[in-house]
Amino acid sequence: MNKKIIYISSLVACIVLFYVEQALVVNYLIKTLVKIFLFTLIPYLYIRFIDKKSIKESINLNRLDISNIRLGLVFGIASFAIVLISYALFKDFLDINSIINELQAKSQITPGNFFLVGLYIILGNSFLEEFFFRGFIFLNLYKLDNKLYAYIYSSALFAVYHVGIFKTWFNIWLIGLALLGLIVIGLIFNWLNTKSNNFLNSWLVHIFADIAIIIIGFRMFGII
């Protein structure tokens, strides 16, 4: 029963976010508030009323060992380099002006507020996604269900969830490549977290990758 709650609630949360982004076309602030609400409320309700543990106990943050997150630092530095190299290789296939116009018109992200948005993406958004997709979905399903299903479901949902963000940025082939890449990233993130039994390793990698993405964003906006 518990695993069904995780599957259903996580899928509903991502469907709602996709609808908010693609159908309602709200600005970035509203979309962020909806995301914070869903990605924190659903795990909290599960932890409080189903798992019946404290949040620290449920996501195993009460026995933090720095030695367990060394892999996160190593993979994080590697992800930083990979993102920047990938951009250098594929930037000619991107319609930079269309991406910038969409960010400004659809999400109201501009050069003037990009620093604050970037800071939130690096620290806040990365935490929310890792807490939800790895701390809540993967680590719980890893204990409750078939381990292979836990890997595949959380990674696939993580990848599909991101398609709504960039589906108009790339051609169909790059979208497919990005989707495959995100699934692989999700699988790696999951594996990293089995080494510490919490989501801190994947959060570190996510932070480093997002730093690289924000640097690219600054470049696209002509800020640097």
Automatic annotation (TrEMBL):
Domain CAAX prenyl protease 2/Lysostaphin resistance protein A-like, chain residue ranges per copy: 113-211
Keyword vocabulary terms for this entry: Hydrolase, Membrane, Protease, Transmembrane, Transmembrane helix
Superkingdom: Bacteria
Signal peptide coordinates: none
Regions crossing the membrane: 33-50, 71-90, 110-128, 148-166, 172-191, 203-221
BP terms from Gene Ontology: CAAX-box protein maturation; proteolysis
GO molecular function: endopeptidase activity
Protein name according to UniProt: CAAX prenyl protease-like protein
